[in-house]
Amino acid sequence: MEGNYQYHPPEGVVDKQQAEGGSRKLFSLPHKYLAILVGVLCVVSLGSATLLLSDHFKKDNNIVSLFSQNFLRFPFPTPTPEQILEDDQTIDWNIYSNEQYTYSIKYPRDWEATKSAQEDEKILDYVVFRPLSATKSGELPITLGYTTRTYKEVLDSDPQVGESILVSSYSATRKLKEDSQRNVLISVAFPRDPNTMILLGMEKYKDIYNLMLSTFLFEVR
Question: What is the pTM for the complete model shown?
Answer without folding.
Answer: 0.60
